[in-house]
Design a protein that fits this description.
The longest helix has 30 residues, at 64-93. The protein is of the alpha/beta class. Helix 1 packs across helix 4 (64-93), helix 2 packs across helix 4 (64-93) and helix 4 (64-93) crosses helix 7 (155-168). The protein has 8 helices and 7 strands; from the N terminus they run αααααβαβαββαβββ. Strands 3-2-1-4-5-7-6 form a 7-stranded mixed sheet. The chain has 2 domains: 6-101; 113-263, Vaccinia Virus protein VP39 (Rossmann fold), CATH 3.40.50.150. It starts with 5 loop residues before the first helix and ends in a 12-residue tail after the last strand. Mean pLDDT is 85; it is low at 267-275.
Length: 275
């Protein structure tokens, strides 16, 4: 790597911190105070305008070593966020308050992200990557009365998420499942699909969804490009015969942005998320 800049050194330092948290207590959750501190500082680092500008200046100089560092940072930070979600769920179940800045950022992003959605009580929404503290299903169901399904490959996250729903979402139409897309019996009934930004294979899953879903389904893909790609998997090109990018919603003050897709073969109006 070339002579380290301030930003590059910060990334190296964050990588060391995240790696230590991931490996410090194998099979258990690491120290919650240090985990919260690191994730909060990293989220603030990602949305800092000065860091974004420095990233853009350096982008043309990135080499294979730097690319490897960026990829590893994305993976380790995503694992730490998953652990932090488990902490938040466990705190709630113990009756303890939560003050994590990262979650405040995500929750404010949900409010802005869904402010223009055409979601109503008859909608059926799927969240891919619901995690241990399913904020998005809770928000959508509370605000619209819609039915929301969350899936996650982490069985422990689903178990904790169900307990969170029992505590905070009594009476809401929310269901969490440890299932794959093709295992959902009602997949043709879905009106909206949302992908969490830390789902690594989300564009492979989007390609798979083309044959499984209704023609009018709308997909919201949370992602992060450039500096935000250090915390989220980036936006990718799609098969133009399958999916059409209809809008991109940029949230400068939030850790992820949103890309909206509809089926390219459909001649019907979007009838979906942002109008």
């Amino acid at each position: 790597m070339q002579t380290a800049t301030r930003l590059q050194q910060c990334l190296v330092d964050f990588h060391k911190r995240f790696s230590a948290l991931v490996t410090s207590e194998e099979g258990t959750l690491p120290n919650s105070t240090e985990l919260e501190k690191t994730v909060n500082e990293y989220a603030a680092f990602i949305i800092d305008e000065n860091n974004r500008m420095e990233w853009e200046l350096l982008e043309q100089q990135f080499n294979a070593e730097f690319t490897t560092l960026a990829n590893e940072l994305r993976e380790t930070s995503a694992r730490c966020v998953a652990m932090l979600e488990k902490y938040r769920a466990l705190r709630l179940l113990k009756g303890e308050a939560d003050g994590t800045d990262y979650f405040r950022n995500i929750e404010s992003g949900i409010i802005e992200e869904f402010g223009g959605f055409n979601i109503h009580s008859n909608s059926k929404i799927l969240l891919v990557g619901s995690g241990s503290f399913p904020m998005t299903p809770l928000y959508i169901a509370q605000q619209t009365g819609a039915e929301v399904i969350g899936i996650d490959i982490d069985a422990e996250a689903i178990e904790l998420g169900r307990k969170v729903i029992d505590r905070l979402g009594d009476g809401l139409k929310i269901r969490l499942e440890n299932k794959l897309l093709e295992q959902l019996g009602e997949i043709k009934e879905l009106t909206h699909i949302i992908f969490s930004s830390t789902v690594a294979l989300k564009y492979d899953l989007l390609d798979q969804l083309y044959a499984l879903t209704d023609e009018q389904v709308v997909v919201a893909m949370r992602y992060g490009n450039q500096l935000k790609s250090l915390f989220n998997y980036p936006k990718q090109e799609t098969d133009p015969r399958k999916w059409e990018l209809t809008d991109t919603i940029i949230h400068p003050k939030h850790v992820f942005d949103v890309a909206l897709y509809k089926k390219a073969a459909s001649s019907t109006p979007l009838g979906g998320l942002y109008e």
